[in-house]
Amino acid sequence: MGKIISIVNQKGGVGKTTTTINLGASLAAYKKKVLLIDLDPQCNASTGVGYDFNDENLTMYDVLIEGDSIAEAIIDTKLENYHYIPSDRDLVGLELEFAENPRRNFILKEQIGAIKDKFDYILIDCPPSLNSLTLNALIASDSVIIPLQTEYYAMEGLVNLNNTLNLIKKSLNPTLKVDGILFTMYDKRTTLARMVVKDVVEAAPYHVYSTIIPRNIVLSEAPSHGEPAILYSKSSVGARAYIRLANEIIGGKRGK
Amino acid sequence: MGKIISIVNQKGGVGKTTTTINLGASLAAYKKKVLLIDLDPQCNASTGVGYDFNDENLTMYDVLIEGDSIAEAIIDTKLENYHYIPSDRDLVGLELEFAENPRRNFILKEQIGAIKDKFDYILIDCPPSLNSLTLNALIASDSVIIPLQTEYYAMEGLVNLNNTLNLIKKSLNPTLKVDGILFTMYDKRTTLARMVVKDVVEAAPYHVYSTIIPRNIVLSEAPSHGEPAILYSKSSVGARAYIRLANEIIGGKRGK
Ligand SMILES: Nc1ncnc2c1ncn2[C@@H]1O[C@H](COP(=O)(O)OP(=O)(O)OP(=O)(O)O)[C@@H](O)[C@H]1O
Ligand SMILES: Nc1ncnc2c1ncn2[C@@H]1O[C@H](COP(=O)(O)OP(=O)(O)OP(=O)(O)O)[C@@H](O)[C@H]1O
Ligand SMILES: [Mg+2]
Ligand SMILES: [Mg+2]
């Protein structure tokens, strides 16, 4: 029975896409069957796993707006056990196309059931806003992972995100859990980063992964090669951090 | 006659808020009368200029959704010539509250005329998405500045942003111009950053400011003190870069 996890944070540029791609690849390296769903019209996760936009594949636009089969949109990556469904720029129109439709935020939930059992993990990369696309992801998910850049604005945004998640749990998806907060782009030399980690660990209402993702140039270079970091530079600090995270998640080790 | 400039990029975390706050403060230091409008429900720009959320002030929610007077929502900062209008978390509801209203993307334009002549520059901080809030900003604006993080995904997003701006110009705001692209968080030690600058300068359809904003810890520490960098640490590399940018914009020097 696959676990559906949304990678979510309305604050922009905190490492949602980087986490979805590299956690997915690392779970696949541990022989878990993984599907990455790109739900952001920016299509960054699609680029980062090497999608060729000239291909005639189905995308999440076809699945959500045209009603095509989600199973037929699945594409292989170079990594065994790792598959994905690309996004499309036109997904930005979902909000308007379905403005009148009360079911607009449940479309993914209705579709995803057909493929849930084919994978151990389904990871959904969300856009940086709390719009219909993110709501579709949160309603279809079992749990969420919150990437948190170790910066002041990102920390402040946590309160807002917590309120939203509670609203979703109350009315739209009562079983939604938060698996954990993941610190990203951590630079141990700065007082700010250490302060954010300390404040969040003390105050956050959720579990905090003991794995911390450091700032590492490989993680921002790999997307230009269309590869996850563990393919682009397996021994890099960034790739190894996501492998540790995958191990922590599979092992279910409780860090703080 | 004031100039209304939107600071816009749908890619998240590229330095929109940091640019709006610090360019605004630097223009004010050059004795220009400046208004900062925070149009992002995350309220980062409001935090960054020291807004106290316990105050009973009017916000952009009251202006856009309740129809209150924009002039009455203006608040002073510690800097002479520098004023702002705070945002509100509930602004995220604009899209739904006005889904039926064909004028929903023109509300700011209708309101802002009343105060345009009181300022030399009105800078609007936009959220990381192309929703009704950003459309309100683009339709009300004379021009835009595009902060561009020197990273691969941010560079890729430029194509998308260009398409959107052309659509807006064609149908909603024919006089909208792009004042320039501003490179942010530049780390000269990385090949990636140098590659992005080179590729964008060669290919971009817009003017590129000769001022480049380097990655500088002061720019991420200042928000936790509710101050622009030129108040928090005037001689820092980050503060001085935004002062250079303000000088370049006022002087109208054409860099490349
Ligand atoms: N640990 C890291 N070290 C260095 N660079 C990183 C790291 N994580 C992410 N990056 C880079 O930082 C930028 C922002 O990361 P990313 O795009 O994954 O964030 P996001 O939250 O998905 O952004 P958006 O809100 O636009 O969807 C990207 O250019 C990415 O390559
Ligand atoms: N030149 C810089 N050097 C170091 N840190 C920076 C710089 N510019 C911005 N930052 C930090 O990087 C993070 C992202 O910047 P900022 O919030 O301004 O981007 P944004 O585009 O407004 O994000 P969003 O898409 O969420 O609105 C912030 O924590 C900010 O403090
Ligand atoms: Mg992303
Ligand atoms: Mg911002």
Question: Structural class, from helix and strand content of chain A?
Answer: alpha/beta
Helix content of chain A: 25-40%
What oligomeric arrangement do these chains adopt? homodimer
Low-pLDDT stretches of chain A are none
Name the helix and strand elements of chain A from N-terminus to C-terminus, one letter apiece. Answer: EHEHHEEHHEHEHEHHHH
The small molecules bound here are:
adenosine-5'-triphosphate, magnesium ion
User: What does the radius of gyration of chain A come to?
Assistant: 17 Å
Query: Taking all residues together, what is the mean pLDDT of chain A?
Result: 95
The shape of chain A, in one word, is globular
**Tally of strands of chain A:** 7
Terminal residue distance of chain A: 27 Å
- Which two chains form the greatest contact, residue counts included? A-B, 33 and 33 residues
H/I helix tally of chain A: 11
Sequence of strands across the biggest β-sheet of chain A: 3-4-2-5-1-6-7
* Largest sheet, strands/sense/barrel of chain A: 7 strands, mixed
What is the percentage of strand-forming residues of chain A? Answer: 5-15%
